[in-house]
Amino acid sequence: xxxxxxxxxxxxxxxxxxxxxxxxxxxxxxxxxxxxxxxxxxxxxxxxxxxxxxxxxxxxxxxxxxxxxxxxxxxxxx
Length: 78
Fold this sequence. Notes:
78 residues; mainly alpha; 2 helices
């Protein structure tokens, strides 16, 4: 059974992980633009794939947090 304390810990951890992944994505965009300006286009496709993967992980984490909150509210109503 989920509790409010578990929810707070989960949301804190999710926010930290999402923030870290977001910073990594921003660094990846900056590195990709630097490579593009330098003429090294071979880096762009792998960087785009990694960024897309991170986007998917962030989306899943957001969905999981919202789903946990929805389940917690459902348990409290009973």
